[in-house]
Amino acid sequence: MISLSSVSNGALSCNITKSCTGTKVLGISDLTNAHAEIFSFNNYPYSICCKDTLGYPIDNQDTGKYISFLKLSSKTDAHVEQSSSNDYNFNAHISSPFYEIKCNYAQSCNGYDTCLVSISGATDAHISVCDYYPINICCTTQCASIETNCIDGLDNDCDGLKDCADSDCDGSIAGTARAQDTNLPIESVDVSTKKDLTVMKSSTTNQQGVYSINQINCGNYTLTTSHTDYAPSFKSAQVLPNQQLTADFSLVLGTSCEADCTFIADNIVHACKPVKLVVAVCG
Q1: Rounded to whole angstroms, how far apart are CA atoms 241 and 167?
Q2: CA distance 53 to 139
Q3: What are residue 163's phi and psi, to 5 degrees?
Q4: pLDDT value at position 223?
Q5: HSE toward the beta carbon, residue 136, CA cutoff 13 A
Q6: Which of 116, 137, 135 is nearest to 27 (CA)?
Q7: Does pTM top 0.70 for this prediction?
Q8: For a FRET experiment, which of 104, 148, 177, 277 has its CA 20 to 30 Å from that of 50?
Q9: What are the structural domain ranges in the chain?
């Protein structure tokens, strides 16, 4: 019995099909003893079709993190050879813009994400479904254990998160809050990190006026302070990957209740009551 599917154990999944819903990386004439054609030709009924199970795009050209897994003798009606051979001029590629793909020629694809096809020899070869011929083309995603680069636009560890969205790239913020007139530390100051109106993380100063916000995604934020006895303050902050940002505050006496009855820390409308018919304070 011949199966059209190639077993997949990881993020990369490839199979031989008549109806490709992923990325076609090669066309083949039959399931066994087949000839090949480059992906852009449509003379043959079968395609080697690949996709990423996490939803990242797979490409069939020499762009991004690509690898040549076969060489063809011509654009269609072709014999094939291993990519390390030098007799043929037309390459079949598989690539991803988000991570590296590694392909090897092996008797078994155990330990790899997927098997593409099998070939009858190192050169001047025919193509078949996996395990039909002695040489399988086995491919896998090359994933690091952590996000190794936080600015390359790639999901280096294949966890579905890239760059600053991955907690491996988190930074931290720390600093002090002091009274502007006395330079004394202020306890119980709420320090919040915001993106637009959304509070991402917050911390409260201790008796020494010190606060710290740990494990926060790298990126740009607005820092705000709130205290019942002091006017709110703002800072723009850029948290760099795996680094600590120091942001100190010098606060002046005032109120954190704004004219629209919101607190600077939360932008929630609070109940207000008039005081001497002049000033509204939040309660």
Answers
A1: 9
A2: 14
A3: 50, -130
A4: 97
A5: 21
A6: 116
A7: no
A8: 148
A9: 12-142, 170-256
Place of tokens 């025919």: 126
d(CA 120, CA 239): 54
Q: Which of 169, 145, 140 is nearest to 157 (CA)?
A: 145
Amino acid at 187: E
Considering the domain 170-256, what is its CATH architecture? Sandwich (2.60)
Return the higher-pLDDT residue of 97 and 21.
21
- DSSP labels, the chain: ---SB--B-SSEEEEEESS-SSEEEEEESSSSSB-EE-TT---SSEEEEEEETTS---BSSS-SEEEEEEEESSSSSB-EE-TT--S--EEEEEEESSSEEEEEEES--TTSSEEEEEESSSSSB-EESTTTSSEEEEEEEE--SS---SSSS--TT-SS--GGGSGGG-EEEEEEEEETTT--B-SS-EEEEEETTEEEEEEE--TTSEEEEEEE-SEEEEEEEEETTEEEEEEEEEEPTT-EEE--EEE-B--SB-TTSBBTTT--B--EEEETTTEEEE-
